Amino acid sequence: MLEKVEEFNMDKVIQEFELLTRDAERVQRETLKRILEDNASAEYLQSLGLNGRTDPESFKACVPMVTHKELEPYIYRIIDGDASPILTGKPITTMSLSSGTTQGKPKYVPWNDELYETTMQIYQTSFAFRNREFPIKNGKALSFIYGSKQLKTKGGLAARTATSNVFCSAGYKCAMRALQSQCCSPDEVIFGPDFFQSLYCHLLCGLIFREEVEFVSSTFAHSIVHAFRTFEQVWEELCNDIREGVLTRNVTVPSIRMAMSKLLKPNPELANAIHKKCTGLSNWYGLIPELFPNAKYIYGIMTGSMEPYLKKMRHYAGELPLLTADYGSSEGWIAANVNPQLPPEYATYAVLPHIGYFEFIPLLELENTKPLGLTQVKVGQEYEIVMTNPAGLYRYRLGDVVKVMGFHNSTPELKFIRRSSLLLNINIDKNTEKDLQLAVEAAGKLLAEEKLEVVDFSSQVDLSKEPGHYVIFWEISGDASQELLHECCNCLDKSFVDAGYTSSRKVNCIGALELRLVRRGTFQKILDHYLGLGTAVSQYKTPRCVGPTNTRVLQILSENVVNNYLSTAFN
User: Fold this and answer.
1) Is 344 inside any structural domain?
2) For residue 220, which of 320, 355, 330 has the smallest C-alpha distance?
3) What does the pLDDT look like over 445-472, one tens digit per residue?
4) What are the Cα distances from residue 354, in Å, to 204, 347, 385?
5) Pick from 299, 320, 341: which residue ends a domain?
6) pLDDT tens digits for 504-523?
7) First and final C-alpha spacing in the chain
8) Integer-rounded Cα radius of gyration of the chain
9) Which of left, alpha, beta for 523 (phi over 0: left; psi -120 to 50: alpha)?
């Protein structure tokens, strides 16, 4: 095992990345050739008449661009136990479940060893660049990671979230040890059946190893914020467990209790030190560096739908840098953060040309939507990504919109802009998730003046009566006056600056925006709903725009509305 640690060579990984990105077009052709040769026997590819050809030109001429919907008949045959080569040459034995927060229900996506290898290539690349800027020694990571429930499909395949598929892979622990990123929590905590009990024990493990923790991480920023919001509620109980050396009765899972009993010994000195740190803080500012004095940074995906959590994260982080993780999806990885010193708001991701074959549909040229190759994209332009991966997805429209910010050698550096499907739209208006986030931030500043904050938010388009209107759901941290909330509602309405929206509002083709205030804990109920569907917390994203088919989430939001306000901004 120690040999694995010595094997990781930061300079070598960076050199390999530099080499691969110098001639990204050649590497892309080779990658496509490898994927098509490995899967030449797949029924799907054979039916499209490629006849063994592996060049990009033939591939694009024969293979159509698809979404998940078109592939579902093939995927469901695999799920039901058909072991013939359907999408891939080798049988698929495992499925990944997407988080399901976009469409309301999880999607099944094929997973195989080759996807695990691409995950490790991304991890190693970003770790090498990160470690060059922020060196860590052989300490531990306080990682808020959670395995999801494993489902068995009708045909006997394992199905769990993509992150859980990574954590469960045979080489994962060794790889993390090699990357000096060992989680300080035992497996029983990571794979525990009860989220709150696992979270509590993650925090406890972090405190036990507080001097050794070199960074704090999770898959998504949301999980880190959620963890330290929880810490504010349970810190005295944690101190008590450390002082007595006995785990709280609230943790009832036998396997977790057994694993924790091996770590927990009475330590009044540590309990007193933590107690002193917590009581000395002003409104929990700088909590993380106070608890973990040797932490170098906080790490996780912090872009896209995670940006709204940055303000709270910075509050907990104090002076510690926030480093955003890499760019990928349940369908596969795309790009690594090779400029870790950039704040998350300015982060870009360099595409690894050897982990998949990538095409880009230009968003502006509506007549010419012919996708471009990896090296043909232009700086400043927005594109939708089309991915071909080693696990049976060919010319798959990912539904992500990215902007090309520059190039690293000949591979593009991308900024995630939005999901292409997440639009608030009634008339000629087109508001994206980013537009919603900016509106919430603007109105949130009014709350901040009263020492309040938006805990979480979502939205829907209400077409139940004419004209349709936007509904924004807010959960806030305390009590606000009616006047203030009405002001916030008007501010939200005015902050959507899309010309189609403002002109439609002025002529009443879109009705007054409605702010609905929900009870404290409503967004926790939504999280619980997704956990019940098999989503792992580490893969969870709050649904920012709830579509009409997502009935259960709409029901949870509606049942918890305590007040609503209609905008008078355009009266």
Assistant:
1) no
2) 330
3) 999 998 999 999 999 999 888 888 999 9
4) 40, 22, 16
5) 320
6) 888 787 899 999 999 999 99
7) 69
8) 24
9) alpha
